[in-house]
Amino acid sequence: xxxxxxxxxxxxxxxxxxxxxxxxxxxxxxxxxxxxxxxxxxxxxxxxxxxxxxxxxxxxxxxxxxxxxxxxxxxxxxxxxxxxxxxxxxxxxxxxxxxxxxxxxxxxxxx
Length: 111
Prior knowledge:
By secondary structure, the protein is mainly α. It has helices at 9-43, 47-74, 78-86, 93-107.
């Protein structure tokens, strides 16, 4: 995705970090919800969940930091910031939120 020339370089860099983390956290959440948890509770195989859960937890914390950094640099509203931070906890929502946030930040629109 090409960045708009009106976006300050620090904001563009924060946006790129956010985009990467939104994708990574979204994929890890899908692996956790649709692979690790069913294996643990449906088939009695807890090993996958024991590995994936802490990785997802750590990556979600990194996502929170990158999303908050972007919110500060792009001047999100408190409501917009909260919604972006929570987008990493519902499967598939981080992908949708990333696209919406990216479009609005690049267009210079408030969130």
